[in-house]
Design goal:
Blueprint: H1 2-10, E1 22-25, H2 28-57, H3 59-81, H4 88-117, H5 122-154, H6 158-190, H7 228-255, E2 262-263, H8 265-268, E3 270-276, H9 283-292, E4 299-302, E5 307-312, H10 318-332, E6 337-341, H11 343-371, H12 374-398, E7 401-402, H13 405-433, H14 442-477, H15 483-514, E8 519-521, E9 534-536
Parallel strand pairs: 2-7
Antiparallel strand pairs: 1-6, 3-5, 3-6, 4-5, 8-9
Helix pairs in contact: 2-3, 2-4, 2-14, 3-4, 3-6, 4-5, 4-6, 4-14, 5-6, 5-11, 5-13, 6-13, 7-12, 7-15, 11-12, 11-13, 12-13, 12-15, 13-14, 13-15, 14-15
């Protein structure tokens, strides 16, 4: 198809004049090396997640680890059958998907542990745990799918590749790590061989209350005595401090003409050259070589000793790039990579980024309002805005380059943060519904929030760990070409994890205790001399 299109263009069959508005050239050495190191880092990340699941959940963890192998196989099979191209962000999405797909297992296994710790039999705990977990898993995965679908519809290039892999990951999660794990674990549970072996499911026998002897049923965990409402103020102040620092650094840089953020050429237009060297690159020597090759106005950023990124606001033509490339090849022994973007593309990317974010917030808010209530949805969006601005603030302070691929990161963070928030809100809703239609006092709401968080924060922490393990390996061992991509993901995942606890849940609590009860007039009596009745309904009517 490419040859046919080239022949049509060369033969003049297309009655249009074509102008280059975007080009990206990657040398074979750079691409092969980046793919190899990123794939190796991803493999170590997957093994790390599997080991974590086995250590924490024992027998269910072993089944989860086995399912990870099947997950990788099925995901790559589907992706290949679709004709997908493996880009570096695509590989990152595959590895990130490993952490996200075991989140479904974590939710289910923790629910089973909860039931076992309440004194249930193994079979009852298994059935009840899967039943209670399914709704949470579906809601959380669907919100991630919303973000991925919007990325695919409005994204370009690497963003589309990331979105496609993320959607395939969600499908694989629901089909394999939910139903298949349930099937295999169910076979072991129903065999009856593990009825008295609850430690095989990560539960110590001495922790299980004996209901027949009248022992009190209660939850166990690391955070059962933590007052989350009380300590949330410190975390909120911490977020304010980070956001303030980012704003100050942004304003200072803007005053110096550098811009609030260090936007890449994807947004500002220009040319980016990646210089690869067999030996250590000397900055002064590189500047002299670039000047000799005809480049005058540029910025240099190093990634290690042998890779340098040269950025200029000039849109270099192909002849100029080839002249510089030949000079770099002569001086450093490796081919140069280049990327050229015109203002047309930069403006379109900015517009698409804004549209993507607004649409993601709108659809997620609508979905959560339908599944929960509006105050849950508004608290979730507040946490999402917090997470995104935390990433902006960190990038403003560190002056890291913000490029088009980070749009995919922001949308992935949106999906992940909502995933974590829904797990917590699902438990809050469950506890609120336990009150029925009675009026709920401020202290009762405080107790609901604290007990809900005490029961879910440990699994939220596990979810974060299983997602961060692959990201840490990708940052430490993966290609430097996607360092900013992975670092933004790391910052966003950490922010998304604690914002679900200390931003979303606490804001929901604040709204609830300040919301006035509904007052509804009763139907008028037939006799006019009878007094009019006022019926006051509780907050949760």
């Amino acid at each position: 198809e490419a040859r046919q299109l080239a022949n049509l263009i060369n033969s003049g069959s297309l009655p249009v004049k074509m102008t280059e508005i975007y080009s990206n050239v990657v040398s074979a050495e750079f691409g092969l090396n980046a793919f190899t190191v990123t794939a190796f880092a991803g493999l170590l990340g997957i093994l790390g997640v599997a080991l974590f699941m086995i250590l924490v959940y024992r027998l269910p963890g072993i089944i989860s680890a086995l399912m990870l192998v099947l997950y990788i196989f099925v995901t790559m099979l589907i992706y290949n059958s679709m004709g997908g191209v493996f880009t570096l962000p695509g590989i990152a999405a595959l590895v990130l998907g490993v952490g996200m797909t075991v989140d479904a297992n974590v939710i289910t296994f923790e629910r089973i542990k909860d039931e076992l710790l309440l004194g249930r039999s193994l079979r009852t705990a298994f059935d009840e745990g899967h039943h209670l977990a399914w709704r949470t898993i579906f809601d959380s995965q669907f919100t991630t799918f919303i973000a991925a679908f919007l990325m695919y519809m409005y994204g370009t290039g690497a963003v589309k590749g990331f979105a496609t892999m993320l959607m395939v990951t969600i499908f694989s999660t629901l089909m394999i790590n939910v139903f298949f794990v349930k099937f295999l674990l169910g076979l072991l549970v129903k065999s009856g061989k593990f009825d008295d072996k609850k430690p095989y499911f990560g539960v110590k026998n001495e922790h299980v209350p004996d209901v027949s002897k009248g022992e009190e049923k209660k939850y166990f965990g690391w955070f059962v005595n933590v007052d989350f409402v009380k300590i949330s103020k410190g975390f909120i102040l911490g977020s304010i401090a980070v956001l303030t620092a980012g704003l100050i650094f942004g304003i200072v840089n803007f005053a110096q003409g550098k811009g609030l953020l260090n936007l890449g050429i994807d947004f500002t237009s220009g040319t980016k050259l990646t210089i690869n060297s067999m030996a250590t690159i000397d900055e002064e020597g590189l500047i002299n070589n670039l000047n000799d090759a005809g480049l005058s106005q540029f910025q240099i950023q190093f990634s290690g000793d042998k890779v340098a990124y040269v950025t200029t606001g000039e849109i270099l033509d192909r002849t100029e790039i080839e002249t510089i490339g030949q000079s770099m090849l002569t001086n450093y022994g490796l081919e140069m990579n280049d990327s050229v973007v015109t203002p047309v593309v930069g403006n379109e990317l900015i517009r698409n980024a804004i549209i993507l974010s607004l649409l993601a917030w709108l659809f997620i808010m609508l979905f959560i309002t339908i599944r929960f209530e509006f105050d849950y949805a508004f608290a979730t969006i507040l946490a999402l805005v917090h997470d995104i601005f935390i990433v902006f603030a960190v990038f403003a302070v560190l002056r890291l380059e913000f490029n088009v691929e980070l749009i995919a990161v922001l949308l992935a963070i949106i999906g992940y943060s909502v995933d974590d928030t829904i797990v917590i809100f699902d438990r809050i809703r469950e506890n609120v519904n336990a009150f029925g239609t009675r009026h709920i006092s401020k202290e009762a709401y405080r107790k609901i929030v604290n007990e809900s968080l005490q029961a879910t924060v440990q699994r939220s922490l596990y979810n974060t760990i299983t997602t961060l393990i692959p990201i840490v390996f990708l940052i430490g061992l993966g290609s430097r070409a996607i360092f900013n991509f992975n670092f933004a993901m790391l910052v966003g995942l950490i922010a998304g994890s604690y914002s679900s606890i200390f931003i979303a849940a606490q804001f929901w609590f604040w709204v609830r205790i300040n919301r006035k009860p509904k007052v509804v007039k009763a139907k008028a009596k037939k006799k006019s001399n009878e007094p009019e009745e006022m019926v006051i309904f509780g907050i949760n009517d």
